[in-house]
Write a structure and sequence with these properties.
The protein contains eight helices and eight strands; from the N terminus they run H-H-E-E-H-E-E-H-H-E-H-E-H-E-E-H. The chain is an alpha/beta fold. The protein has one domain. Strands 1-8-7-2-6-3 form a six-stranded mixed sheet, sandwiched between helices. A two-stranded parallel sheet has the order 4-5.
């Protein structure tokens, strides 16, 4: 019986990746056509809204397949009002899809290799996502986009959280961007099992399903007169406290009927 259930889960996850990849190909093909037309800048808000809805549909699909149940805590309209720099811990490969499903008009930063990929880049370019590895030019570019009214999602760990720790050391770039754009920093704690596609794990490696994930908007940092390094230290302290106080294993519901 256990082997049969595991086989069903394997079929469900393979089908899920097939759906994800197929939708991504269609989206990027459509975006590639729009990029060739004049006035592509006006399509940015619509592209970001489409990506948000598709990620929401992806989370609903994972729920329907009984693989992953995602809940969002604290994502009320009032707490999401206005542009901001959102920072989150990064335990697994799917984190951005879970978070972007609820953040309004938000951009990300992609590595140049992703932007240059014809199967991934067109949608990111049309959505006006930023591209770069690091440096002052990237900070200026992203800060300008945020100052124009967009929000930014960034994982200041720089990579997925390594095994054996709750949080990698945070990089201060997010604090510099927020200061230059004059927007608040909002913290997101992503509570997820550590075997849900962590760093070094191939995409086809199965965790123990079903999986419960909670995405928790903690609130805004009170920066005051802090410099970037001090604000980064405060963010690390608050994120670490949230992750330690509410371990993922303690929040699995007895029933999934309350999924939202």
């Amino acid at each position: 019986m256990k082997a049969l259930r595991r086989a069903g889960q394997l079929a469900a996850i393979l089908l899920s990746w097939l759906v994800f990849g197929s939708v991504s190909l269609v989206l990027n093909f459509a975006c590639a056509i729009l990029l060739l037309l004049p006035g592509r800048e006006r399509h940015g808000p619509a592209a970001r809204a489409t990506i948000r809805r598709l990620f929401g549909a992806w989370c609903a699909w994972l729920h329907a397949t009984r693989l992953i149940y995602v809940t969002w805590t604290g994502f009320t309209p009032g707490r999401l009002a206005g542009p901001a720099v959102y920072i989150a811990n990064h335990p697994g490969l799917l984190d951005a899809t879970f978070i972007l499903a609820r953040l309004p008009d938000t951009i990300c930063i992609f590595k140049p290799s992703v932007i240059d990929n014809p199967l991934l880049g067109p949608a990111a370019i049309l959505a006006e996502y930023a591209s770069g590895d690091a440096g002052l030019d990237l900070i200026r570019d992203v800060a300008g986009r945020v100052a124009d009214g967009r929000s930014l999602l960034i994982f200041p760990e720089g990579t997925r959280t390594v095994a054996g720790v709750d949080l990698n050391r945070l990089k201060p770039g997010f604090a510099v961007i927020a200061a230059r754009a004059e927007v608040p920093v909002r913290l997101i704690a992503l509570h997820a099992p550590r075997d849900l596609l962590p760093k070094g794990t191939p995409w086809w490696r199965l965790p123990a399903f079903p999986v419960w994930v909670e995405v928790e908007l903690l609130g805004e940092l009170e920066a005051g007169d802090m410099n970037a390094m001090e604000l980064t230290a405060l963010a690390a302290k608050q994120l670490s406290a949230a992750l330690v106080d509410r371990p993922a294993s303690a929040r699995q519901p007895e029933s999934v009927e309350g999924h939202s």
